[in-house]
Amino acid sequence: MNFITSLRSEILKTKRTSSVWISLLGALFIPSIFLIMYLTRPDKLVPRLMMAPWQIHFSQGWQGMNSFLFPMYIILICALIPQIEFKNNAWKQVFASPQSTAQVYFAKFLTVHLMILFFYALFVAFMLMTGVVSDLANSKYTFLERRVPWSVLMQLNAKTYISILGISAIQFWLSLRFKSFVGPVGIGLALLVGGTIATGFGWEHVSKIPYAHPILTLMSMKDKGPLQLENHELNSIGYFIFFTALGYWDLRTRKERG
Amino acid sequence: MSTTPVIQTEALHYHFSPDVKTLDNINLTVERGSVYGFLGPNGAGKTTTLRLLLGLLRNQQGSIRIFGEDIATNRISILRKVGSLIEQPSLYGHLTARENLEVYRRIYGADKSRIEATLALVDLSGTGSKKAKQFSLGMKQRLSIAVALLHRPELLILDEPTNGLDPNGIIETRELIKKLNRDEGVTIIVSSHILAEIEKMATHVGIIHKGRLLFQGTQPELQHLQEKESIVQIDTSDNRAAQGLLQQYSAVERNGCVELACADRTDVAAINRTLVAGGIDVYRLQPRQNDLEQLFLDITSGNQ
Questions:
Q1: What is the residue range of A206's domain?
Q2: Which residues does chain A have within 8 Å of residue B92's beta carbon, measured at their own beta carbons?
Q3: Chain A, nearest residue to B57 by Cα
Q4: Which of A93, A101, A250, A252 is best to mutate for the B interface (most B CBs within 10 A)?
Q5: Cβ B56–A95 below 8 Å, yes or no?
Q6: Nearest-neighbour CA in chain A from B166: distance (Å)
Q7: Which of A215, B49, B169, B197 is the most buried (most CB within 10 A)?
Q8: In this structure, is residue A9 part of a structural domain?
Q9: Are B58 and B168 found together in one domain?
Q10: Measured between beta carbons, which residues in chain A are less than 8 angstroms from residue B51?
């Protein structure tokens, strides 16, 4: 199938790029900090994790992730994938090849999301390893005695992923518009800080700001636990659909390509 | 074999800003099996024309037909049979030569064996795990040509393929173009701003200047046009006096030489005799080299 061909070609282009390394290092960051803390301060952390080690471990981990690191990763990865073409002057060759604009756009956007899922998979794996390694190093931890709550893990993944959907579509659109890497990343960072501040002030319309959605999800998990879809998460899906369509329309109607 | 031209544009106009015409009424005809040299100085509109042919720019006015099909409606089926190299190489610097070809092989649905075949053709088989960003400019240009050739295109669109290459690279690229045309019957449109370059490989020539197509025809037709205006340059001990003696040829002094138009070689001998008899030493007497600038002057003065 044509689309699969375009997708495979896009995935091949990411080989050895910084997007792979950023995914790996980004996913490793919080689990390694946790591991260091668990190994150096068992006196404080063993009691804290005693009741439900995996639940607390996961909840802390995803909260740390969603507050800043994860949205930041989305902003970077959305810019890095289109940058492969800009940096190598390769858009013209892409558009002079027999692929429809839809194929080019959606294969690239799907590559971005596959990279995000790769990041998730790594993060989950590192989080699990942190628990196991801590228990092996210090038997006072009870990770190995308890079952991993897979459903909680899946819900955490699903909710945080939904919370960044809106940002991903906006950032991808911006990253196709700007030739330079600095543009979309700068705008994304500014909006992310803005979203965080608006949340801090408790603004009544904050659920309409896509860049506040990850932190709102984080707060809703603290309150109620990861069970149902919040309003802002539905908004995030809405923004995702709107900006994905806008980005495609923008690329399609451009006078000059490549 | 069909006689439909491979490329046919009618009344192509293009402007980037409303008051500057980048292309003005371009009617290009590229016949099947030809090497069409698209000649013009930088900024003449060559790249704009070629980008329009590939659908990289949205057509504003006029029609473009490639293989008899309209690019506006049949872009993808046309592009399947076209290979292109527009301006600087578009290669993925972090990938090897083989990986770069693999990216496009999938899209064109070309056979796996084409990768080794095209690498051998452009003499890059031995590059192994070396990344494209470590290649010399000549190697990058050759790999770009390999990308363009991967799917055995019927039409090759090459924009200044020898730009930035050393003399050896220029000769190799030229030979490759001729070979592809001769052995595989590929129709090629190749742009350049160097007349001598085009003369060495093109069967047909189109000359574009300030967005207008000044000349289009076969290479012999172009040569004929140049011969009509054969100019002789003479360097003498006293150019001013020589100019006086040669008034009947309407000689002028230019670039430290006397220049005059003469229709026939017996005139050249007569001119030499006149000068010698007039006591003027002749150091040099030669046909003027045709460069692009001069060709434009000739064509534009001929058009007036």
A1: 2-252
A2: 13, 84, 88, 90
A3: A256
A4: A93
A5: yes
A6: 22
A7: B49
A8: yes
A9: yes
A10: 92, 256
In a domain, B223, yes or no: no
CA torsion angle A54 A56 A59 A61 (round to 10): -80
Domain extent for B133: 7-217
Q: Are A96 and B86 a contacting pair at CB < 8 A?
A: yes
B132 Cβ contact list (under 8 Å, min separation 6) = B91, B92, B93, B94, B95, B96, B97, B100, B140, B143
Closest CB to A84: pick one of B54, B92, B106. B92
| Structure token pair of residue B304 | 């007036």
Say how many domains are in chain A. Answer: 1
Each residue's pLDDT expressed in tens, for chain B with a length of 304 residues: 567 999 999 999 999 988 889 999 999 999 999 999 999 988 899 999 999 999 999 989 999 999 999 999 999 999 999 999 998 889 999 999 999 999 999 999 999 999 999 999 998 999 999 999 999 988 999 999 999 999 999 999 999 998 888 898 899 889 999 999 999 999 999 999 888 889 899 999 999 988 999 899 998 888 777 766 678 888 998 888 888 888 888 888 887 888 888 777 788 888 889 999 989 999 988 877 666 667 776 666 654 4
Query: Is B108–A97 a contact, with Cβ atoms under 8 angstroms apart?
Result: yes
Is residue A129 a contact partner of residue A31, using CB atoms and an 8 Å limit?
yes
The Cα–Cα gap between A46 and A48 comes to: 5
Tell me whether residue B61 is in a domain. yes
Which tokens go with A158?
A: 């699903």
Give Cα B78 distance to the centre of its chain: 23
Q: Is the Cβ pair A89, B89 closer than 8 Å?
A: yes
Token representation of residue A136: 């092996």
Q: Which residues of A touch B147 (CB under 8 A)?
A: 93
Euclidean distance between CA atoms B3 and B256, whole angstroms: 50
Kindly state whether residues B193 and B104 are assigned to the same domain.
Answer: yes
